[in-house]
């Protein structure tokens, strides 16, 4: 029983970590592509992530402790005879009878493989909007890839095959995906299909609300934090592997500075006049008369608004235990509080930075329509 439980626990933990780290990015991509968020699409994406980690856990784990641990005679010999499981079924029935066969390992191993790949067929039809043939092909490709990965010791990562590559597994797994693709047409799985939204670029402009602007800020914060942690983490890993030592000022100031430049500053002064997160939410900065703001005004709004706040927050939060900018911490928190309160009470929803620079937000698609009408 433990061999069934612990891979599932690892799959749940892995999917939660993945969604916690990448969930906001997936929402940003969803909003950018479809122009809105859908709870059904989000649930299906989360289910796909959980299933992906589950498929990996049950087919790849546990991994050998060293490159050569799996290298001993008799282990990892591939089974290349199609239909061998049918012979094992006959042998089990002959020796144990039907009652014994119903509880035998050879039967339940096959049934488990079928069940394991049924969700892949369901997702192929519902999530990827494919058909039965799509589920069949996807199941075959996924199963073949898994068996080849096992046979090659994860493509040379290990010196020997650490699991038995079985051609029957490809057959059974593909059959499971096929069954899942057929069952996917049952109404019970309709909730896995997100709404058929067209390309967000061709959708009608929508009103800019406080929640939409707040969502854009969440996207910007996630992009910035992910980039900073990714770069600093990579440099720290390189240092631990014997590479050049990282400079504390580089880690705590220059990397956040460069990331904020690429996430906020450059996108704000280029056509579109919006940060990366705002672009995902289809927002653009406007001046008077709802025309696109000038590069200078958009830059000022960026520096006085969430772009400047994000930069100050990044540089005031050190990777060391003691912040190198204690006074800056206080100033940042005060400015964040004042900006948040003003954002909530301002009837025009312009925010403190918008009030100071005379700018606002409009749906970017409205400006695109104006350009087409000219």
Question: What descriptors fit this protein?
Answer:
mainly alpha, Teicoplanin_resist-assoc, 374 residues, 2 domains, 68% helix, 15 helices, elongated, membrane, two-stranded antiparallel ribbon
Write up what this structure looks like.
- With 374 residues, this protein is mainly alpha-helical.
- The mean pLDDT is 85.
- The chain has two domains: 2-192, no CATH class; 204-373, no CATH class.
- It has helices at residues 2-34, 39-60, 84-102, 105-126, 132-151, 153-156, 167-183, 210-240, 248-269, 276-280, 295-304, 306-316, 326-345, 351-357, 364-373; strands spanning 283-286, 360-363.
- The chain has a two-stranded antiparallel sheet.
- Helices cover 68% and strands 2% of the residues.
- The longest helix is centred in the N-terminal third of the chain and has 33 residues, at 2-34.
- The protein contains 15 helices and two strands.
- Keywords: Membrane, Transmembrane, Transmembrane helix.
- Pfam families: RDD, VanZ.
- This is VanZ family protein.
- It comes from Glutamicibacter ectropisis.
- It is found in: Membrane.
Helicity, as a percent range: 55-70%
Tell me the total number of β-strands.
2
Helix- and strand-based class?
mainly alpha
What average pLDDT do the residues reach?
Answer: 85
**What percentage of the residues does DSSP assign to strands (E)?**
under 5%
Put simply, the count of helices is 15
Order of helices and strands: HHHHHHHHHHEHHHHEH
Radius of gyration: 27 Å
Our measurement of the CA-to-CA distance between the termini, rounded to an integer number of angstroms, reads: 69 Å
């Amino acid at each position: 029983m433990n061999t069934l439980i612990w891979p599932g626990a690892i799959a749940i933990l892995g999917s939660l970590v993945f969604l916690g780290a990448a969930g906001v990015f997936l929402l940003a991509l969803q909003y950018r592509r479809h122009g809105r968020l859908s709870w059904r699409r989000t649930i299906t994406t989360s289910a796909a992530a959980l299933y992906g980690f589950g498929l990996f856990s049950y087919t790849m784990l546990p991994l050998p402790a060293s490159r050569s641990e799996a290298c001993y005679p008799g282990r990892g010999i591939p089974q290349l005879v199609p239909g061998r499981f049918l012979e094992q079924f006959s042998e089990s029935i002959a020796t144990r009878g039907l009652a014994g066969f119903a509880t035998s390992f050879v039967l339940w191993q096959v049934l488990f493989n079928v069940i394991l790949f049924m969700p892949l067929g369901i997702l192929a039809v519902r999530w990827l909007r494919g058909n039965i043939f799509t589920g069949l092909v996807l199941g075959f490709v996924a199963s073949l890839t898994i068996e080849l990965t096992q046979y090659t010791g994860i493509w040379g990562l290990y010196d020997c095959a650490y699991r038995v590559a079985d051609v029957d597994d490809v057959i059974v797994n593909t059959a499971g995906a096929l069954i899942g693709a057929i069952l996917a047409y049952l109404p019970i799985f309709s909730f896995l299909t997100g709404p058929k939204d067209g390309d967000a670029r061709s959708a009608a402009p929508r009103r800019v609300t406080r929640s939409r602007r707040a969502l854009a800020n969440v996207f910007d914060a996630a992009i910035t934090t992910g980039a900073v942690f990714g770069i600093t983490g990579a440099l720290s890993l390189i240092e631990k592997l014997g590479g050049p030592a990282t400079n504390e000022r580089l880690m705590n100031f220059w990397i956040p500075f460069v990331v904020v430049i690429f996430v906020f500053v450059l996108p704000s002064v280029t056509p579109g006049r919006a940060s990366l997160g705002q672009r995902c939410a289809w927002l653009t900065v406007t001046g008077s008369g709802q025309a696109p703001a000038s590069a200078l005004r958009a830059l000022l709004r960026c520096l006085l608004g969430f772009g400047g706040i994000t930069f100050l927050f990044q540089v005031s939060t050190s990777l060391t235990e003691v912040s190198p900018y204690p006074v800056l911490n206080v100033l940042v928190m005060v400015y964040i509080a004042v900006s948040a309160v003003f954002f909530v009470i301002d009837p025009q929803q312009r925010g403190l930075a918008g009030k100071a620079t005379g700018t606002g937000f409009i749906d970017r698609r409205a400006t695109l329509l104006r350009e087409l009408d000219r």
